[in-house]
């Protein structure tokens, strides 16, 4: 098989000859360089060794004795190490060269692109010019590595990585090996592709996949929402032009809360004697006499 067919794969080659800067390996028809920086153990001419074939920055086929877990057709989890808005994101698969996940394979909105240290489940693909690119796992691939959840797992806390994003929701693969969906109403903001998130199971579907909520439980949410309102009041010297009469869209724009959540949290703060309302404004209680 020609070496071009081995790009992105692990293959066995013969050590043909030594050079000042490394070794030339051969498949019997074509040679490829194994640079001395990529030699991981002592080798000799005539020996057969396993190497990973890739293309360097100059477009030349080259070899490394560092054998990555992620190769063409073989999937694995890998971290993002760099983001280039013009190109896409670069992924560390374990060799000296980082691999590109092109912008054409990323979400349309850059705000949900992976950032450095996010984790994605990927394989490699090779284009017609022999260039290697990263390829994201499809829904079917994630399904193939998932197991089915049982009803006893309802309301269980989970964490995992986002493997697909869309306006209607996000798809997650959990640390327990479950495949799940997060509806847009079950998240306060859209998580990034590859982001690690914490949530809870709110439904187990017939096929064994799960529905997940990233929203806190009601009591936790009430405390969190109250803190959001208090922090905003404190940033404005204890007064804000929002009350339980404010328009839902104004509340959503400012606090990323629904009108109902805002009213519940505000009601709690008023019941606890921390804030009061007057003429459409809300004030921290200590400022009442001012």
UniProtKB/TrEMBL annotation:
Domain S1 motif, first and last residues per copy: 155-217
Superkingdom, natural source: Bacteria
GO MF: nucleic acid binding
Coiled-coil intervals, chain numbering: none
TM spans (from-to): none
One family name in Pfam for this protein: CvfB_1st
PANTHER family hit by this protein: CONSERVED VIRULENCE FACTOR B
Assigned protein family: Belongs to the CvfB family.
Name of the protein described by the UniProt record: S1 motif domain-containing protein
Organism, as annotated: Cytobacillus kochii
């Amino acid at each position: 098989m020609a070496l071009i067919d081995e790009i992105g794969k692990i293959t066995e080659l013969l050590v043909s000859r030594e050079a000042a800067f490394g070794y030339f390996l051969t498949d019997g028809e074509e040679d490829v360089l194994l640079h001395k920086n990529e030699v991981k153990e002592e080798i000799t001419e005539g020996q057969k060794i396993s190497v990973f074939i890739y293309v360097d920055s100059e477009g030349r086929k080259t070899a490394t004795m560092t054998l990555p877990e992620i190769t063409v057709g073989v999937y694995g989890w890998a971290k993002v190490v760099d983001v280039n808005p013009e190109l896409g994101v670069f992924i560390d698969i374990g060799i000296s060269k980082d691999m590109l996940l092109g912008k054409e394979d990323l979400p349309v909105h850059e705000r949900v692109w992976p950032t450095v240290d996010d984790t994605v489940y990927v394989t490699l693909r090779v284009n017609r010019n022999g260039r290697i690119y990263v390829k994201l796992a499809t829904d079917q691939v994630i399904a193939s590595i998932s197991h089915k959840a049982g009803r006893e797992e309802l309301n269980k806390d989970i964490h995992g990585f986002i493997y697909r994003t869309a306006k209607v929701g996000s798809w997650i693969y959990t640390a327990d090996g479950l495949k799940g969906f997060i509806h847009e109403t079950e998240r306060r903001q859209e998580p990034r592709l590859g982001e690690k998130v914490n949530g809870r199971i709110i439904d187990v579907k017939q096929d064994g996949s799960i529905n997940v909520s990233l929203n806190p439980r009601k009591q936790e949410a009430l405390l969190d929402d109250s803190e959001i309102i208090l922090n905003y009041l404190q940033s404005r010297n204890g007064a804000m032009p929002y009350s339980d009469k404010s328009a839902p869209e104004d509340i959503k724009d400012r606090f990323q809360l629904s009108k109902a959540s805002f009213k519940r949290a505000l009601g709690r703060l008023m019941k606890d004697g921390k804030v009061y309302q007057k003429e459409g404004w809300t004030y921290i209680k200590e400022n009442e006499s001012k």
